[in-house]
């Protein structure tokens, strides 16, 4: 089979298209014929050698959609449409950057849909992350104010839409004036230009601060995001768009405001209740939710797609579709 193999840690050029052996199925695992997959920021870190415990060469990819090719447990019939995500996929065993992938049964979610594969490929990890961040981590509720830091990312765009359906007022950030209209068109009530320090700008809109912050930039802006919450507010760090894992200095009793809450979301497929993925796909199919897909690449173009992601050019999800 063909696979995009990360042969060694490094820049996007370390990902090479190769002919490799098709995985052999084993008990407790299922073989999936991959039709599409989304690119994720964590895969950039893995490629660069920043993910602990990853051995190279490695076929990356923490998610995919496709058909069941073989399932020795007979849980799924051959040809069943499925998604697979997380659970060590693309890190501790080979993942979705290939024509076939062998994954544990417990990370596989079935679905039915008439949507094209490139749209389905954008959904699993993005939806799992947004749903878990908003509902489980931030525990959003109607009438609250939500600041999305990193609003033009695929996670940020979908988070805005889902928060609006729950009755929240959304502030969303971008670093450039060119993306302001895209955020407004996506449903944001307020758009804030992010120059690294936006707490004073947020306080001009809501002097007491906002209820919740979805932090997608990461450690670079976390301290400033904590300054944006009102008394008893909460910040959830979900993304690392700023490309920095750790903070040089952090003083909990000082950087976290009194009675403020700081949490993180690092979800797995198990965080998606059964049926929730199907419900979301149905909403996309009906047009109730609009996915922001920026660009679709081929398997041969995975290195180019990684470079595009690393340069922060996308205004939505980057997808790879296999023909």
Automatic annotation (TrEMBL):
GO terms for molecular function: NADPH binding; oxidoreductase activity, acting on NAD(P)H. Coiled coil: none annotated. InterPro entries: ADH-like_N, ER, GroES-like_sf, NAD(P)-bd_dom_sf. This is Zinc-binding alcohol dehydrogenase family protein. It comes from the Bacteria. The keyword Oxidoreductase applies. Keywords: NADP, Oxidoreductase. It comes from Fulvivirga sedimenti.
